[in-house]
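Consider this today:
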Amino acid sequence: QVQLVESGGGLVQAGGSLKLSCAASGRTFGSYAMGWFRRAPGKEREVVGAINLSGGRIYYVDSVKGRFTISRDNAKNMMYLQMHSLKTEDTAVYYCAARLTTIAGSYYIRDDEYGYWGQGTQVTVSS
């Protein structure tokens, strides 16, 4: 079992940057594929991106490609979401999620594929 805690959210002007962190408990972080999701006001939760066990395969939703970067540090039990060129439409609660897997090369982009979730961190981008 893993527990996830997000941090790093806040208020930023459009065009600015933020870096979110996801801290995972436990000693088997390297056995979890990870994902970042977000839920904007009045909208469904959507995937932002996902990363496989090693960090060598990463998926991004089209709307954040070229602006967001996902990474993980298995030695530190951490995952990150570096966000640049933020837009007002990036305003949302951001969640990290974990899925225990033995498939090294896979990432997962549906929220129902994940069994563990953090509490979320608010990102607000002002115009």
In short: The radius of gyration is 14 Å. The chain is about 0% helix and 50% strand.
